Every structure is written in C-alpha cells, then in structure tokens.
Amino acid sequence: MAYKIIASQCTACGACEFECPTAAIKFKNDTYIIDAKVCTECDGHFDAPQCNSVCPVPKTCVKA
Q1: How do residues 15-62 score in pLDDT, each as one tens digit?
Q2: In terms of pTM, does the model score above 0.90?
Q3: N or C: which end of the chain has fewer CB within 10 A?
Q4: What does the angle CA 25 – CA 46 – CA 40 come to, to the nearest 5 degrees?
Q5: Cα separations (Å) of 34 from 3, 57, 64?
Q6: What is the rounded CA–CA span in Å between residue 49 and residue 36?
Q7: Are 9 and 18 a contacting pair, CB within 8 Å?
C-alpha cells in the first residue's frame, strides 16, 4: 500500500518532500504527489509514515 496527498488540502509547504526516505514525493502542478510505486509507507525506515507526521494540515497525507 502507499500514501497519497489530498491535493485540495495541500498547502505546498514542502515539508513532506524532504522527509520521505524513498524520494517518492515530488512537486507537480502546484501541489505535491506521492509515487505509489516508490512509497513504502516508511517501512524499514521509520515507525510511522513521515509525510503524515510532518504535514501541518491534518488528514492531507493519507493511505491510498
């Protein structure tokens, strides 16, 4: 499974992009997106998905 970013809630702050250990998050069309093929939900790197942990807007980084 992977995470996704709810585009309508994303403030494009960029916090998630720099925290992603697999570089699955990229800026595209005025928002950030998560490449589901690359996202591991931080398994093997952290105890919790870092995009969700650092996002300032609740429920913006969610399970796809």
Answers
A1: 999 999 999 999 999 999 999 999 999 999 999 999 999 999 999 999
A2: yes
A3: N
A4: 45
A5: 7, 16, 10
A6: 13
A7: no
Per-residue tokens: 52: 């969700």
Which structure tokens are listed for 50? 């870092």
Polymer length of the chain = 64
Q: Sign of torsion, CA 3 41 52 17?
A: negative
Q: Under a CB-based contact definition with an 8 Å cutoff, are residues 45 and 11 in contact?
A: no
Distance CA 59, CA 44 (A): 23
Query: Tokens 């995009």, residue?
Result: 51
The pLDDT assigned to 14 comes to: 96
Tell me the C-alpha distance between 42 and 2, whole Å.
9
